[in-house]
Write a structure and sequence with these properties.
The complex is a heterotrimer of chains A (235), B (222) and C (279). Chain A is α/β, with parallel strands linked by helices and 235 residues long. Chain A is 30% helix and 23% strand. Chain A has 7 helices and 9 strands. In chain A, the strands form 2 sheets. Chain A has a 5-stranded parallel β-sheet with strand order 6-7-8-3-9, with helices on both faces. A 4-stranded antiparallel β-sheet of chain A has the order 2-1-4-5. In chain A, β4 and β5 form a beta hairpin. Chain B has one domain. In chain B, α3 runs antiparallel to α8 and α6 packs across α7. Chain C has a single domain, classed as Up-down Bundle (Four Helix Bundle (Hemerythrin (Met), subunit A)), CATH 1.20.120. Chain C contains 11 helices and no strands. In chain C, α3 packs antiparallel against α4, α3 packs across α6 and α3 packs parallel to α9. Chain C is elongated. The termini of chain C are close together. In chain C, 33% of the residues are buried. Classes of the chains: A alpha/beta (235), B mainly alpha (222), C mainly alpha (279). Chains B and C meet through α7, α8 and α9 of B and α5, α6 and α7 of C.
């Protein structure tokens, strides 16, 4: 089966700085992959690159069948990116935001409503302006916007940050169900315990690099912690 | 594309309806400008009433700069620029939608300014058809050029000072044309004004086309 | 990508393997070359000749006397300004179409020279206005349009200096540049039409000198000389800007190597693909 993500020696630039300096990555459909690495290693940049937002200038990079070097824009509407920013209009209500973004993505209204319900936003919070929500509630709203679009590739940057335990469980459940129905998930997280329980395998990025199998692995730093012996795999 | 434009225009106007920035800040600013002109030009000397068409449009242009900056400030917040790129909306559609929302707000401001000018400067109005068409054509041109230069300046640290510097020279034909048209309406010689409306329409069309093509590339990261 | 100005490649030292952060010590320390020295000398000779014709050998005008001699600077300078403006627009179009950095640098260099010559045109125009009409400024079509041209160029140059990453800056500047010539034309037409409605222009017309014979010859010589000067300035400014960009760009390989080294990986060869993407 065609991998959803296929990167070889991908180099991606933030201005003139090579934020990704040689990434090798393969992700198959339906997988949940955990992305680990120290701060500044390039986790956020990798997720944004996979979303088609940042240009790939060297190497091979294919996501959902589109070549990121020439056709990055086609990838965008098929992925869902949950980043540090809320990507919501503060002045509008939760329901307004979900409705706007899902109509922009040509998603079904029923999916939008379902997303609101799943994230617990269909009661009183529906008609509250985003500016008046707590940080955790805003996160839930951002997740609802993403879920309503039913993306084929989920790119989650610290999805559990700022959420209470119950909501974290909701998020994990959503991720598992999405993967079960064929979506692919890449999660960047520092929450090792919860994330490794969720993910099928883990990859580590250091200094903008995920080494390929033919590269020397210095000091064994890039060896992933095994969530369970049989699923660990270094690409 | 037009469906996207309607969606974006609706969203922008809804944001304005909830936050009321144009109403609470830009409209009072318009009134303030009219009053400042009266202070500067001494209502008794007759200069104020002679200069009314020009002063009106200068006030409109100043308000337009504020309205355009506001329209892009709401996108600057919290990753919305990325979100627009990921959304699946066509860039040309986003352009037309933002342009329409800015134009709608400008028309309301022009009506308010018109009332202000009639009340405060004692202007007699005539030639309604010419006045209305001038306003529509000029507003379209201001919104078209403004949305293009607005997205160009958006996201830059120097955006507040760059936008007027870029936009106002570009809009000088609109200022010249709409003022001449208003003067023709006031003097009772509308025949002289209609050619200027033609110029305004050509300007608006040219910039709408440029803008629709240029908006997408400018929305990108680099 | 090949450059049309072959001189440029002879003046840049080839980057050492792996890219150095500073140019090689044996590289050029100036932007001059054989070509520009010849051009420069020819221009100086041309200026000397034009000055002689303008100031000494051509006749006075019957109405204005010696003041008419300003025309020998004023017209060539404004021609240079408009040519510079056209090159900026052309360069911007080509940059957006071909993504060629060569054209981007051309547009930027040309705009700077156009701005200076436009400002000069206005100053010279004011020097003409004062003895002729007794005022420093008149709102006639030409002066007003030239003032607007200056503002449009200042806007373009402001965009060239924004604190942003250079690709973003070049793209924004190009969009402003593409619109530069259309804006100039639209503003020109509006202003001319507007001023033609006022009868004052007939007064100005009676003071326009008739150009013929020796005066025409002096003028038609001055224009190409001014264009030669423009070319000389353009080549130098272009090379300066190009060298500035080169210093930043050749670091990319090194930057990749450094980033990988931080994490303990070996340098990986990625130079093959970089060239097109960053230009």
């Amino acid at each position: 089966m065609e991998p959803v993500v296929h990167l070889r020696s991908a180099v991606s630039l933030l201005g003139r700085f090579p934020a990704l300096a040689g990434v090798d990555l393969d992700v198959d459909p339906g997988e949940i992959v955990l992305l680990q690495g120290p701060n500044g290693a390039g986790k956020t940049t990798l997720l944004r690159t996979l979303a088609g937002l940042l240009p790939v200038v060297s190497g091979t990079a294919t996501v959902l069948g589109h070549d990121l070097r020439t056709d990055a824009r086609a990838v965008r509407r098929r992925v869902g990116l949950l980043g540090h920013a809320t990507m919501l209009y503060d002045e509008l209500t939760v329901a307004d935001n979900v409705r706007f973004w899902s109509r922009a993505a040509k998603a079904r209204p029923a999916d939008a409503e379902a997303a609101l319900t799943e994230l617990g936003l269909d009661g009183r919070l529906r008609d509250v302006a985003v500016a008046r929500l707590s940080a955790g509630q805003r996160r839930r709203a951002s997740i609802a916007v993403m879920v309503a679009r039913r993306p084929e590739l989920w790119l989650l940057d610290e999805p559990h940050a700022g959420l209470d335990a119950a909501t974290r469980d909701v998020v994990d459940d959503l991720v598992r169900r999405a993967a079960a129905s064929g979506a692919t998930v890449v999660v960047a997280s520092h929450e090792l315990e919860r994330a490794t329980a969720l993910a099928g395998r883990s990859v580590t990025i250091v200094g903008g690099v995920i080494p390929g199998p033919d590269e020397a692995d210095p000091d064994g730093e890039t060896a992933p912690p095994d969530p369970s012996p049989e699923v660990a795999r270094v690409p | 594309m037009f469906r996207d434009a309607l969606l974006v225009a609706g969203k922008d106007l809804r944001v304005e309806a909830r936050s009321r920035v144009a109403l609470n800040q830009v409209a009072p600013f318009a009134l303030l400008v009219l009053i400042m002109f009266a202070f500067a030009l001494d209502p008794d000397s007759g200069v104020l009433s002679k200069a009314t068409p020009g002063l009106y449009w200068v006030a409109v242009l100043f308000c337009a700069v504020l309205a355009i900056q506001r329209a892009f400030a709401i996108e600057a917040a919290d990753g919305n620029r990325d979100a627009l790129r990921l959304s699946g909306l066509e860039p040309a559609g986003i352009y037309l939608g933002k342009m329409a929302a800015i134009a709608a707000q400008l028309v309301i401001l022009e009506v308010l300014l018109g009332l202000g000018v009639v009340l405060l400067y004692g202007t007699k109005t005539a030639g309604w058809a010419l006045l209305v068409c001038t306003c529509l054509a000029a507003t379209a041109g201001i919104a078209a050029a403004g949305t293009l230069y607005g997205v160009l300046a958006a996201g830059l640290r120097v955006r507040e000072t760059l936008l007027p510097l870029l936009l106002l020279p570009v809009l000088s034909p609109v200022l010249i044309g709409s003022t001449r048209a208003f003067e023709a309406a006031r003097n009772g010689t509308p025949g002289e004004g209609w050619p200027w409306v033609g110029l305004l329409a050509v300007f608006a069309l040219t910039y709408t086309i440029f803008g629709a093509f240029g908006f997408g590339p400018l929305l990108e990261e680099s | 990508m090949t450059t049309q100005r072959s001189d440029a490649t002879t003046t840049t030292a080839p980057p050492p393997a792996g890219g150095a952060a500073t140019p090689d010590a044996s590289g050029p320390i100036g932007t001059g070359s054989r070509g520009t020295r010849i051009l420069g000398l020819a221009t100086l000779a041309g200026i000397a000749l034009a000055a002689y014709l303008a100031l000494v050998s051509s006749p006075d005008d019957e109405n204005m006397g010696d003041v008419v001699r300003i025309i020998y600077i004023h017209v060539p300078i404004v021609v240079v300004a408009y040519v510079g403006c056209m090159i900026t627009t052309l360069g911007s179009v080509m940059y957006l179409w071909k993504k060629s950095r060569w054209w981007d640098v051309t547009a930027a260099a040309s705009a700077e020279i156009a701005m200076v010559t436009t400002a000069l045109t206005l100053v010279v125009g004011m020097c003409w206005a004062r003895p002729t009409w007794g005022v420093w400024w008149v709102w006639d079509a030409r002066l007003t349009s030239t003032a607007m041209l200056l503002l449009l160029l200042l806007g373009y140059l402001a965009v060239r200096r924004i604190p942003a990453e250079s690709g973003a800056r070049s793209k924004r500047a190009s969009i402003v540049g593409v619109l530069l010539l259309p804006n100039v034309i639209i503003v020109n037409r509006s202003v001319t039409w507007w001023r033609s409605l006022h009868q004052d222009t007939t007064i100005l017309n009676t003071l326009q000198p008739k150009i013929h014979g020796d005066m025409a010859f002096a003028l038609y010589l001055a224009i190409p000389v001014a264009l030669m000067m423009f070319a000389w300035l353009l080549v130098h400014r272009w090379r300066l800007a190009w060298l500035e960009e080169e210093v930043l760009d050749h670091d990319l390989d090194q930057a990749i190597t450094d980033r990988r080294a931080e994490a303990g990986f070996d340098a990986r060869s990625t130079t093959v693909d970089i060239g097109e993407a960053t230009s």
